[in-house]
Amino acid sequence: MAAETRTAGAADVLRADGLAKRYGDRDAVADLTLAVGTGRAFGLLGPNGAGKTTSVRLLTGLLPASAGRVELFGETLGPGNASRLRARVGVQTDTELYATLSARENLRIWGDLFDVDRRRLPGRIDEVLEMLGLASRADSLVGEFSKGMRQKLAVARAVLHEPELLFLDEPTADLDPEAAADLVDYLRSLIRAGGTTVVLCTHQLHGLEALCDDLGILVDGRLVATGPVDDLLAARWPTPGFRLEVGGDPAAAARTIAAAGGAPVLESDGALTVALPTEDRVPALVAALVAAGVPVHAVVPLRPTITDYYFATVDDAAARREEARA
Ligand SMILES: Nc1ncnc2c1ncn2[C@@H]1O[C@H](COP(=O)(O)OP(=O)(O)OP(=O)(O)O)[C@@H](O)[C@H]1O
Known about the structure:
six-stranded mixed beta sheet, disordered N terminus, binds adenosine-5'-triphosphate, nucleotide-binding, ATP hydrolysis activity, ATP binding, transport, P-loop_NTPase
């Protein structure tokens, strides 16, 4: 049975149940079952070809599923309600932008399509262009835009009608570091202050902790891990780890730590890492090292990140695949 993300205390804005897409004899997505609560940010991660884009297209009803069901805002998505439900959703990758029109004109068309109040639309367009850092290029033709500017405009277009649920596919891929940080800040404000629910596909793992509440990791079309970020990290690394930077012979320091009941790992840079049942054990360990004449230069808590979790999970999946082949 597929794992399921549960976000306690929040109504589910999006649910998928056994969602699948087959192309010939290949499963692009298989048995996708998840739930995303109101105001949560769900990071959908996975290697190239894992099925992220296909999943987003299935979840937004842009692609017919081979099997399974999608629920948006508590209603099963179907031909009878798709356009009404999709009006409450923003999708960054919905369609191409019009290259022969300006940024402002592109947004005006989109605003009309999504029934943004005509009187409010000009002000709202200025607002989103400002928020996405495009105000000074509002009247430039999109065909003259750089890749990063087009990407910002696609996000501006997706948020224009103030959707309750926002799907983003690699929104920072073509942005410079400063623009990427600004976009993450903006998304965070939408989620934290505006209560928007976000589903984000990305390969940019660094700093995702600042944005994502929940994760799903897709490998070969299957969700191999899903849940709240904190729970996933705590389940995989239940004991706190520490990095000890010591002087003298690290092997001698390792023996002292082992004698004190720890299980040190000697890193290639000469530092030692050790997992301890609780932080309370650190002072006794340092005291044992000092008593043995080992100078302790630093004790740094190791906090596993989403990047660590991603690589560990993808490696596990690869190992399972190898085992199954053997
Ligand atoms: N129209 C299609 N016809 C046949 N196969 C397809 C089609 N679209 C996607 N696929 C296959 O489905 C799988 C998942 O593709 P998808 O684009 O969803 O992956 P992804 O995780 O978004 O990849 P990336 O990170 O590279 O963008 C791939 O094996 C891909 O070749």
